[in-house]
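does this look right to u?? calcium ion version
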Amino acid sequence: MERVLIIEDEEKIARFVELELGYEGYQVEKALDGRDGLEMAKTRPFDLILLDVMLPGLNGIEVLRRIRQFSDVPVILLTARDAVVDKVTGLDSGADDYITKPFAIEELLARIRASFRKKKGSGTNLHPSTLEVGRLKLDPERRDVWVGTKLLELTKREFDLLQCLMENKNIVMKRDVLLDRIWGYDFAGGTNAVDVYIRYLRSKIEEPFDLKLIHTVRGVGYVIKDE
Ligand code: CA
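got this back:
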């Protein structure tokens, strides 16, 4: 679930955005002034920040400058109508986009989606912990998987299995070891659960892209390798 922080001193707007984004499946937290917002951005992981420019105390541009000292999280500025200076200064200070108040919620949602697409498509904002095997990438923190720039939908179990294989790239993983790690010791279903999920993974990450990354080691288990 994408985590969004809104920093906005007008409680009505903050509450409205929180509700609407909540309906869309985002996990939203709000801060009602710049200092609180900055503190939250420092101490918790967010995938996106909506930042009002006109904030009491520490203004939005200053909050943005400080956020940029430690994070490249996408930031969308909420600016007053016709405040051209805000927009220019904001973009210069590292904002990814801005939206003018008052805005329609549909427009805000579209900007948010575009911002996530840009981030995922660019491939430049990968976490350092991202695992790579050939064109396949897996980000354990965001729980995202791509082949090239295509973002894939995996279930939790598929993701965990793939992560385990990728963390052990070039190492043959025994089926019972995979079973213990992914399903737990008390799982009664037997090791063919591993085979079933390997098939699911292959149908999602190999077949559509004509890749061969996961190799079967007969009678033993599986290994993921660069082609
Ligand atoms: Ca304001």
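The first strand starts at residue 3 and ends at 7. idk if thats expected tbh
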